[in-house]
Amino acid sequence: MADSQSGNGRAAAMSPVGVLDRREVLPKLFPNPKDYLFIAGLAGTAKDTAALCGDDRNYYCLAGVMGAAASMGLGLALARPDKRVVVLTGDGELLMNVGTLATIAVLNPPNLSIVCVDNGHYGETGYQKSHTSLGVDLEAMATGAGIPVTRTVTEDGQIADAAELIRSGNSSSFILLKVKPTDPPKVRRSLDAALSRLQFIEGLAATR
Fold first, then answer.
1. Fewer Cβ close by (within 10 Å): the C or N end of the chain?
2. Which SS3 state, helix, strand or coil, does residue 179 take?
3. E-strand spans in the chain?
């Protein structure tokens, strides 16, 4: 990328499918998940987030609402400027509403990070190849939308920089994790949207 703050997006373009294991990289990226509020996308990232947070109520996972994670995370970041907010979403889910990145860039809440776990497949609908398997670069799209700081993480040595950016950056950020098309953690999570909403609200109230 030409922007001095952006990462190594061209490496992602050269290797459309990643080599990182999502089950290993996410705990390294978020060693202290209690420090964040999470909005998770569908399927794999919902399980990723549930595995990270365990019994804590600092996360809300979507189910069947493809494309909404980034918008919900933006609203949460604006409503709770005192907390670090992370949208943990997949490439397929983000592609459904990629225009939200432009709104995030314009509003630029400093406490918001979008973390896209890109395995190059639509995990919710049958594991068909997504556009990122065919060369679409989501970091380039985030940079083009105007998000001030972006990174693409393709190897272990880049995780620490991304973790620091999420933890202490002073603008909205976008992190693209290029992972292998392997299964997320085996986690049983509630698909009761009303119950999940109430639990998340209780968790938010406890952090005030």
1. C
2. strand
3. 36-40, 59-61, 84-90, 112-118, 121-122, 128-129, 149-153, 173-178
Q: For the chain, how far is it from start to end, CA to CA, in angstroms?
A: 39
Q: Which residues of the chain have pLDDT under 50?
A: 1-14
Which domains, from first to last, does the chain contain?
Answer: 9-206 (3.40.50.970)
Provide the residue type at 151 as one letter: R
For residue 8 the two structure tokens come to: 């190594």
SS3 label, residue 90: strand
CA distance 61 to 66: 11
Strand 121-122 relative to strand 128-129: parallel, antiparallel, unpaired? antiparallel
Q: What is the pTM of this model?
A: 0.90
